[in-house]
UniProtKB/TrEMBL annotation:
Gene3D superfamilies noted in UniProt: Creatinase/methionine aminopeptidase superfamily, Creatinase/prolidase N-terminal domain
Organism of this sequence: Rhizobium grahamii CCGE 502
Pfam families hit by this protein: Creatinase_N (PF01321), Peptidase_M24 (PF00557)
Positions in coiled-coil regions: none
Signal peptide from the UniProt entry: none
Residue ranges of every copy of the Creatinase N-terminal domain listed in the record: 13-152
Name assigned to this protein: Xaa-Pro dipeptidase
Lineage: Bacteria, Pseudomonadati, Pseudomonadota, Alphaproteobacteria, Hyphomicrobiales
Domain Peptidase M24: 161-366
SUPFAM superfamilies: Creatinase/aminopeptidase (SSF55920), Creatinase/prolidase N-terminal domain (SSF53092)
Amino acid sequence: MALHFDRPEFAVRLARLTDKMREEKLDALLLFAQESMYWLTGYDTFGYCFFQTLVVKSDGTMALLTRSADLRQAKHTSILENVHIWVDRVNADPTVDLRNLLVEMDLLGARIGVEYDTHGMTGRVARMLDAQLTSFGQIVDASYLVSRLRLVKSPAEVAYVERAAVLADDALDAALGLAKPGADEADILAAMQGAVFTGGGDYPANEFIVGSAEDALLCRYKAGRRKLDANDQLTLEWAGTFAHYHAGMMRTVVIGEPSYRHRELYNACFETIQAIETVLKPSYSFGDVFDKHAKIMDERGLSRHRLNACGYSLGARFSPSWMEHQMFHVGNPQAIEPNMSLFVHMIIMDSDTGTAMTLGQTYLTTDDAPRALSRHSLDFINV
């Protein structure tokens, strides 16, 4: 079996989940987020682009409902033994199969939580599910129950995050070995992803971001490549990925002669990330981290150029995003605890002057000061 964790680890996770379910007075939970299924059982697939759900009862009983293409995937990659198949057919409604399965599991009239806020739950599926279950029992939104449990990483998970961080550093080394006037973004991107694969890593949950010149001000991947000019700027955001665990990094590399604005924005990024390290520890919240970011940026007159979030929790994630639910934004009360893997990014996009500057890395929280997982410094990069 292709398990990345031992069975005692999965047993601890199930116990944590069922304890929380009883606390929330849930008789059962319908998991639609692939990362929830992976965390709880090891089940590893991209089959969540179709209907599938993992039913978890408060007594620890589990049953997966999926398509035939994922039967062997579930048997090979997870601890699941109870796998049910819904049949592909014209006008298929797998929520009927789910309702029948819930009846078999003695859940008629039960209080059932559902993971609605996930890419594994389309609007159509939500409507079909609600139509089947509204009169079946008490249905409640439990989108963040497993997500919150996943925030604090076990020692085994920390080891995977640390391995992912090594691969992220390797990817930066590969990029810097190529970044120079005339270099092709395509070659840089291929080298970065290749470094992760060569190191035994995986595809990331979303595309690496690469952009130069005006495209350096974009915060998302887009199609199309160009070659670097003699004086240019190259924004990169990427993640090392190992067993689906991510460690994110972000840099803007200046090619040729940096402008005064590049230096000015870099100083703001560096000062802010240093200040954030003082609150990235227990007794502070995710909201406190954002407040520190906003205060420094706004004092420097950069409120129009910064973003409304400055990072997020990272862990085992699946496409289309490596971002977890818990983000550093205004008012987020989520407490910082030891053994969280948190990506902090400073992103300043000055459209007035066409200048980009970014700086970001992943930290592991401790009982006190956070530990940066990258071997690279946060120095200004000029090639």
